[in-house]
């Protein structure tokens, strides 16, 4: 069998692709230590000024706060709406289930720029009626993010429900449990890991969201990606390199830890 | 029955109000703003500047798709069929970039390719070039950045297809004396062709509505459809034309997705 493992050529080509995948992540590291104000490599003296500016400049802190607020609120809305929808479909199995699911997955498959335009148009209209859920307001960004991330919550929760044994719900039903009791007492506790997973995924997606955010914000509500965008577009600010290094470290740490745990479990299991 | 309907309807109402209705509004704009009729569509499909953007988008997206799917095929091969330790390392190389913000990745490419970036500095230090080679603000940078973003998305359908390959077929071909190369090209590749097709359509759909990476790495020099829509909204307000363009884009993507679904439907049957 070992004859059919990938050979030297495949391994070499893969190594090139892997290098290509990691290259930009490595390239930000030296840039983040430059002592100049523009994108350059540190020649001779390394400086931490761009890391310091991340912590000293109150605008980065404000953006961090609004990213966390938007992420938590949008994920909460998305998970509540999605779990109600999925449980409803699961219990009722309506005739139009396929069509309805297809409809709620639409924001996930439509080109992002079309969704952005649609949401910008919608929030512009709403701005004429109120100033909470409106263009460039926190409420408006939460609404836009909820629309964009709710399909992912639906997918994760649908998967969780598909693994749930229907007989548990049938038992509760036959013993006279009302629909609220079945939902809150039986179904929700049994899919709690799916709900937590959906919440995490939604938060991550909202945290990284830039396509729609660019269209629905300008100066008042500035999430972290939006502030990065401003620093990239006007003149490339090395503070973004510092921020990217920090984010890359966090992501790498989480993924390596997760992989290590899996690897050990697989070793033990095998 | 009533309480369960109460569960399903909130999300449908929410998306109906905040997604479907505004999209219908956009469609209405595309036929009415500024003049009633099909003038906006006419501009989208006949104006030479717009057509050149559409043509550039299709051309670059095809290049990006071919590059991403080929790179993804090679690395997925190792991820699915390599030895355990190799598999772990490949997985890290795929998953770490996948979870990192698109902005950080675009910035990384700027740091790599710009005039004062890593690559130019190295080449200068080694004495290979005298002045910096322009590698950003052009189509090359856009292709590199977009391919880098899309490789992980091509990996997932390919991995599914490769995991579904029946090991015994490969062993049989091997046992009957086929060379390694022949087992790969005449047995393994045809058996994963559906995954390649799926990955190809998926990556193409993703790339065609892409805004962030082309805007940052193209630097306004190679505008793609999504950036053109952005310009029509925020720079030279032409809502009707932007709306018409969006509708055209939506129809194109819908058509490709329909093909994708039908393909997968056939395989499932």
UniProtKB/TrEMBL annotation, chain A:
Domain ABC transmembrane type-1: 64-258
Any one Gene Ontology BP term: transmembrane transport
Domain of life: Bacteria
Pfam families, alphabetized: BPD_transp_1
Segments passing through the bilayer: 12-33, 68-92, 99-122, 142-162, 183-207, 239-261
Family: Belongs to the binding-protein-dependent transport system permease family.
Name the record gives this protein: ABC transporter permease
Organism phylogeny: Bacteria, Pseudomonadati, Pseudomonadota, Alphaproteobacteria, Rhodobacterales
Automatic annotation (TrEMBL), chain B:
Ranges for domain ABC transmembrane type-1: 54-260
Subcellular location(s) per record: Cell membrane
Keyword NADP appears in the UniProt entry: no
Entries under PANTHER family matching the protein: ABC TRANSPORTER PERMEASE PROTEIN, INNER MEMBRANE ABC TRANSPORTER PERMEASE PROTEIN YDCU-RELATED-RELATED
Sequence intervals crossing the membrane: 57-80, 92-112, 140-162, 183-212, 232-260
Keywords: Cell membrane, Membrane, Transmembrane, Transmembrane helix, Transport
Protein name (record): ABC transporter permease
Organism superkingdom: Bacteria
Pfam families per record: BPD_transp_1 (PF00528)
